[in-house]
Amino acid sequence: MPFSLWISLVAICAMGAMSPGPSLALVLRHTLGGGRAPGVVAAISHALGVGFYALLTVWGLGALVVRVPPLFQAITWVGAGYLAWLGIKALRAGRAGALEASAMATTQRQAAREGVLVALGNPKLILFFVALLSQFVTPEMSVAAKAVIVLTAMLIDGGWYVLVAVSLSHSRVLPWLQARAHWINRLTGVLLLALALRVVAGPLGGA
């Protein structure tokens, strides 16, 4: 892959990773609930989910999923249901307030699971990759070049959210955020529920 083309790929992946949304809120929540380690684990596991969709794209399976409405709708409903469940959990924790630290406590195992599933539960990532990453894939492209595309998407996504988790877990930042944890939980819950509704509305609106 020419270097100039790779730079364009990097720019697209960076814009996708840095846009605010439920993924950022999830990393923030796990960082607040367990400190730096769960936040970093959530970031890395989210990147694995992104890498899975990138792999589908370079194999051409992402476009196939989009072209098969029943399959895409099944992924949509399962993903939306999981995102809505996470959103409700966050809202319930938010009502408990910052005085009950256990209400938002988290573990590395939980962070790993939710990081992957939030990425996989968003089938609009398939649309993002099919619309954008597929432009970098050609029939004659080598396996090594396809691997570069997948690894680039994963490393940029994971690197950005690891940076977020490390920055937020700084000793001067974390106490300030934890004092406002109930508001952050509410924001996380609203974002996850909004994404669930948007995921459901997308395929239904296009049907």
Automatic annotation (TrEMBL):
Pfam families: LysE. One of its GO terms (molecular function) is amino acid transmembrane transporter activity. GO terms for cellular component: plasma membrane. It is a multi-pass membrane protein. Keywords: Cell membrane, Membrane, Transmembrane, Transmembrane helix. The chain crosses the membrane at residues 41-66, 116-137, 143-163, 183-201. The keyword Membrane applies. It is found in: Cell membrane. InterPro entries: LeuE-type. Its main location: membrane. It comes from the Bacteria. This is Lysine transporter LysE. It comes from Halomonas heilongjiangensis. The lineage of its organism: Bacteria, Pseudomonadati, Pseudomonadota, Gammaproteobacteria, Oceanospirillales.
